[in-house]
Amino acid sequence: MASTRGLVCRVAPDEILLVGALDDVDELLRSAGVAMAEIDPDALALDVSDGWDAWELIGRDAGAAFARLSELDLPEEGFVQGEVVRLPVKVLTYGSDRLTLLIPAMWGDYLRERIVTDCGAVGVTEVPT
């Protein structure tokens, strides 16, 4: 579900992950805190962006590349979480040609290596950002 400045992902019955631009972290935390206080005054909103890495698969072969990494069924647009190359990954989909993979930072280099190695046959290349 999209918010005004981020994407709200339900990761557990009592937990959400709010994904947004790094420049918007302070505003997202403030907005989330206000919204949560109405529902549960004991709820916490934390910035955990330094604990995550993000990798994107972009292009017409993004779905084919992802299929080499995981058996997860992807929604056309939205959020799913599960096993990708034997790691816990959260996947945001934006149509059939763009996927964002969120992974705990300690596994980021391993996921990058697996994407490059396992998806090279479908034309995946690295693009500096």
Notable features of this structure?
129 residues, alpha+beta, Alpha-Beta Plaits
Question: What's this, in brief?
Answer:
The protein has helices spanning 25-39, 62-67, 108-119, and strands at residues 6-12, 15-20, 52-58, 77-84, 87-94, 98-104.
Tell me about this structure:
There is one protein chain. With 129 residues, this protein is of the alpha+beta class. The strands form two sheets. It has a four-stranded antiparallel beta sheet. A two-stranded antiparallel ribbon has the order 1-2. The two termini are 26 Å apart. The model has no long low-confidence stretch (mean pLDDT 88).
Strand content: 25-35%
Q: What best-fitting shape do the alpha-carbon axes yield?
A: elongated
Give me the CATH superfamily of the largest domain: Aminomethyltransferase beta-barrel domains
If helices are DSSP runs of H or I spanning 4 or more residues, what is the number of helices?
A: 3
Q: Please report the first level of CATH classification, the CATH class of the largest domain.
A: Alpha Beta
**What is the share of helical residues?**
25-40%
H/E element order:
EEHEHEEEH
Radius of gyration: 16 Å
- Lateral strand order in the biggest sheet: 3-6-5-4
Domain module tally: 2
Average pLDDT, to the nearest integer? 88
Please report the total strand number as a whole number.
Answer: 6
Give the termini distance in whole angstroms: 26 Å
Structural class computed from helices and strand pairing: alpha+beta
Instruction: Tell me which CATH architecture of the largest domain applies here.
Output: 2-Layer Sandwich
Provide the CATH topology of the largest domain: Alpha-Beta Plaits
* Uncertain segments: none
